[in-house]
């Protein structure tokens, strides 16, 4: 394993943590340790924005250095204004980041190769290579020569920037970048859940650990349900099998449910790949899945920033009403995070607006108090405080005002990302669609059962005193309505809608009646996103089923936010239950001693509390165990063979796969990689998720046309036209081929196994316009002489 690149990355992020600590201390003053856990993302967000904006004019190592200098200047300003970090806490939480970083670095080292099978590593590696060569942003499209990129590239931009400033080759930086984003997710989950739990008077460390367990490690209940299905009684195994295996059987086993159950329930043949195929017509991931999958997808690697936006929202939630300027700063901070999402993962931009709405609406200060006192007073007075109807009107008015703040956050985000979103080249789409095919309740619970259970346990725990004050007639009415609602939901596949909407509604009532806390707000955010999947979807061309990409890129955000709330909730429930059990044992022992031996078996008046507390502990432990089955199985699959062999093959080299299986092509690619500038190459197009377009992918040199993703980014007609032109270069009449070479300014023609497989008989390149620039037993690269052409 390569230790120098690892050390370089750890030193860089130590500098980032030290630089971001004063910024975090200024923003998170009300939180434990002055927000030390958020120091790294507090620096990375402005760093990314400066690189993005300055890069529009000039991009390179100097741009990255300038961005680091700008963040350091901001940190110095905050420090001079009195933002004093707790440096011991900063060092401790940096250790949490390091633990997460090293864990995923180890996972990547077990399978480091950049391959096309089953993912988009080829696309993303081509982009980071293209960015390293780019003189300005946006970079040239590596798979559509002569045009700028039409794809949000913020994730790849940050990976390339860190690799450049640390002097790390991208063949290592690709995998280390994945590990770094995971480290951010781990430390933010630790800090946010810990802060919420400490606010409730319990251990922040327990809250942080359980936050990491649910958010960054935890997985869907799919895995334990699938593994247990063959052992269940037949009357339970049949419906469980259809819910847990039905979609995977349809997609991968030709509809053979029995074969799918036999294969995917066997621990020996289990693989994490199939766990996202449960709810028909969708693919749904959790963060652990996304990081193990190992590409640079924005939706996968931005989850730490999604949680950081939640942390900023929590900071706002905790700020007093009189601290108006800092609350405005928090809103602006949310806008900045939304801006990074604008060019990193546009799917998350509205999520930040939604978090702003929830935080501003749930906080004690009225949203209108963000305005000056003279403007705020009439807005606050409009709702009134007398009577139930006035209270409802006041709450609606508060939500409308909070919605305005959320809109402002989104507008700021669009402005920050405007070089891409407004003035750039955004992939085409057909807008928003409504009421897509819904999620059956069974498969939905198979995926999210543990998360839903933890939220329900917490809501029930917090709401029990409220229920005790409700008139029993309302319970009777609810008892009559519930069977009708359940039957309707099952009949029309509205079960997922009913479950998520009910928890969101009850949770919001608890928050606004001061029974709920920010863990409930996070649960509302996460479940709200899962509810949204049942109502709206992005209408993307050439994507079928309609919810495919929407579910993939929204569900992981829903899990991230909901799981952060669940982790904090689990810590609070366990802490409260443990305290009550300890008190009960002490009281019971004291009563027995006072009453003498004859009273030893008497029932304590607090026994019901002890039973409820015991039940809560058991329930939380079962939920936690169910969510941790997935990472245990992942570690066994990814690291088990390496442990068995002594870890001799561990490496972070992304070129490992091509160097091992295609050494002749790797040699040709190394030669191309050394060419200066961005000369255009041509290589044979081919189907996506196959070993096609390797020369452009591994060098960052633009090729005339690459994978068929360009059908989405441009149009099917534009893509097919270029494919036809490339075909003519390799097989067409010479006059036409010469015109195509000149049109795209091709400097190198790549002839390797892919070209021979696609075309069979290739044209002769024995012409004055070509000379052999590189040749080995598998690949010949011709340099095009433009004058002779």
What does this 3D model show about the protein?
- The protein has a domain at about 660-785.
- Helix 2 (about 40-55) crosses helix 3 (about 60-80) and helix 20 runs parallel beside helix 22.
- The longest helix has about 50 residues, at about 550-595.
- It has 32 helices and six strands.
- The protein is mainly alpha-helical and about 800 residues long.
- The protein is about 65% helix and about 5% strand.
Give the mean pLDDT. Answer: 91
Q: Helix fraction?
A: 55-70%
Number of helices: 32
What's the arrangement of strands in the largest beta sheet?
3-4-6-5
Indicate the structural class.
mainly alpha
Uncertain stretches of 5 or more adjacent residues: 598-603
Shape descriptor reads globular
State the distance separating the first and last CA atoms: 47 Å
**Major sheet:** 4 strands, mixed
- Please report which band the strand proportion falls in: under 5%, 5-15%, 15-25%, 25-35%, 35-45% or over 45%: under 5%
Write down the Rg: 28 Å
Overall strand count: 6
A few lines on this structure:
This is DUF2298 family protein. With 789 residues, the chain is mainly α.
SSE blueprint:
Elements: H1 3-27, H2 39-55, H3 61-80, H4 87-110, H5 121-133, H6 154-166, H7 170-199, H8 204-217, H9 222-228, H10 234-252, H11 257-264, H12 287-293, H13 298-301, H14 303-318, H15 324-344, H16 349-362, H17 373-383, H18 388-416, H19 418-421, E1 432-434, H20 441-468, H21 472-491, H22 495-512, H23 518-533, E2 536-538, H24 548-595, H25 607-644, H26 656-661, H27 663-673, E3 680-682, H28 694-699, H29 710-713, H30 716-731, H31 734-743, E4 746-751, H32 753-759, E5 770-775, E6 780-784
Helix pairs in contact: 1-2, 1-3, 1-4, 1-7, 2-3, 2-15, 4-7, 5-6, 6-7, 7-8, 7-14, 7-24, 8-24, 10-11, 10-20, 14-15, 14-16, 14-24, 15-16, 15-18, 16-18, 16-23, 20-22, 20-24, 20-25, 21-22, 22-23, 23-24, 24-25, 30-31
């Amino acid at each position: 394993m390569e230790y120098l690149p690892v050390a370089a990355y750890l030193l860089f992020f130590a500098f980032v943590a030290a630089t971001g600590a004063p910024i975090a201390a200024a923003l998170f003053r009300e939180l434990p340790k002055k927000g030390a856990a958020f120091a790294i993302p507090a620096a990375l967000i402005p760093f990314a924005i400066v690189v993005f904006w300055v890069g529009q004019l000039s991009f390179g190592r100097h741009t990255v250095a300038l961005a680091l200098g700008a963040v350091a200047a901001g940190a110095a300003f905050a420090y001079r204004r009195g933002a004093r970090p707790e440096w011991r806490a900063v060092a401790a939480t940096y250790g949490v980041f390091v633990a997460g970083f090293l864990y995923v670095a180890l996972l990547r080292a077990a399978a480091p190769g950049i391959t096309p099978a089953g993912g988009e590593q080829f696309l993303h590696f081509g982009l980071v290579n293209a960015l390293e060569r780019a003189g300005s942003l946006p970079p040239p499209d590596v798979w559509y020569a002569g045009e700028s990129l039409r794809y949000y590239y913020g994730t790849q931009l940050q990976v390339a920037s860190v690799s450049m400033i640390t002097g790390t080759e991208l063949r290592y930086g690709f995998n280390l970048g994945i590990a770094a984003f995971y480290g951010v997710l781990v430390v933010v989950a630790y800090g946010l859940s810990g802060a919420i739990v400490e606010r409730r008077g319990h251990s922040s460390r327990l809250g942080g650990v359980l936050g990491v367990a649910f958010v960054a490690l935890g997985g869907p209940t799919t895995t334990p349900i699938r593994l247990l299905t063959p052992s269940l009684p037949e009357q339970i195994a049949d419906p469980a099998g259809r819910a847990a295996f039905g979609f995977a059987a349809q997609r991968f086993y030709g509809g053979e449910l029995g074969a799918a159950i036999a294969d995917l329930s066997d621990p020996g043949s289990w693989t994490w790949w199939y766990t996202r195929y449960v709810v028909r017509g969708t693919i749904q991931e959790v963060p652990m899945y996304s990081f193990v999958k190992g590409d640079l997808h924005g939706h996968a690697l931005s989850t730490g920033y999604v949680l950081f936006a939640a942390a900023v929202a929590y900071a706002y939630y905790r700020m007093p009403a009189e601290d108006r300027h800092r609350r405005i700063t928090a809103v602006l901070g949310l806008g900045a995070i939304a801006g990074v999402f604008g060019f990193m993962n546009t799917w998350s931009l509205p999520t930040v607006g939604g978090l702003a709405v929830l935080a501003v609406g749930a906080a004690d200060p009225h949203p209108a108090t963000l305005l000056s006192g003279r403007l705020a007073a009439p807005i606050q007075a409009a709702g009134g405080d007398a009577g139930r109807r006035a209270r409802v009107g006041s709450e609606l008015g508060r939500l409308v005002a909070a919605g305005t703040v959320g809109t402002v956050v989104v507008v700021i985000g669009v402005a920050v990302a405007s070089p891409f979103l407004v003035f750039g080249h955004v992939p085409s789409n057909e807008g928003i669609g409504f009421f897509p095919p819904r999620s059956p309740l069974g498969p939905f619970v198979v995926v999210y059962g543990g998360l839903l259970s933890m939220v329900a346990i917490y809501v029930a725990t917090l709401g029990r005193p409220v229920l005790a004050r409700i008139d029993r007639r309302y319970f009777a009415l609810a008892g009559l309505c519930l069977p009708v609602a359940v039957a309707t939901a099952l009949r029309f596949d509205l079960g997922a809608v009913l479950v998520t909407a009910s928890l969101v509604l009850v949770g919001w009532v608890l928050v606004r009646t001061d029974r709920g806390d920010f863990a409930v707000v996070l649960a509302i955010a996460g479940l709200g996103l899962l509810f949204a999947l049942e109502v709206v979807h992005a209408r993307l061309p050439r994507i079928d089923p309609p919810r495919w990409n929407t579910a993939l890129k929204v569900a992981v955000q829903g899990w991230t936010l909901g799981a952060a709330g669940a982790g904090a909730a689990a810590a609070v429930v366990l802490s409260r239950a443990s305290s009550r059990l300890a008190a009960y044992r002490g009281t019971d022992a004291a009563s027995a001693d006072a009453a003498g031996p004859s009273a030893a078996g008497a029932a304590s008046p607090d026994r019901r509390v002890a039973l409820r507390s015991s039940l809560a502990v058991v329930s939380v432990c079962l939920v936690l165990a169910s969510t941790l089955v997935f990472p245990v199985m992942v570690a066994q699959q990814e690291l088990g063979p390496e442990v068995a062999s002594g870890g001799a093959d561990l490496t972070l080299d992304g070129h490992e796969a091509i160097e091992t299986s295609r050494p002749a092509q790797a040699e040709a690619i190394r030669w191309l990689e050394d060419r200066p500038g961005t000369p255009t190459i041509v290589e044979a197009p081919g189907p996506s998720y196959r070993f096609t377009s390797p020369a452009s992918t591994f060098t960052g040199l633009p090729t005339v046309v690459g994978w068929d993703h360009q059908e989405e980014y441009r149009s099917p007609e534009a893509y097919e036209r270029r494919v036809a032109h490339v075909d003519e270069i390799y097989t067409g009449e010479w006059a036409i081929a010469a015109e195509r070479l000149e049109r795209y300014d091709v400097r190198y023609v790549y002839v390797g196994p892919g070209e021979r497989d696609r075309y069979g008989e290739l044209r002769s390149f024995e012409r004055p316009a070509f000379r052999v620039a590189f040749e080995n037993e598998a690949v010949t690269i011709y340099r095009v002489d433009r004058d002779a052409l």
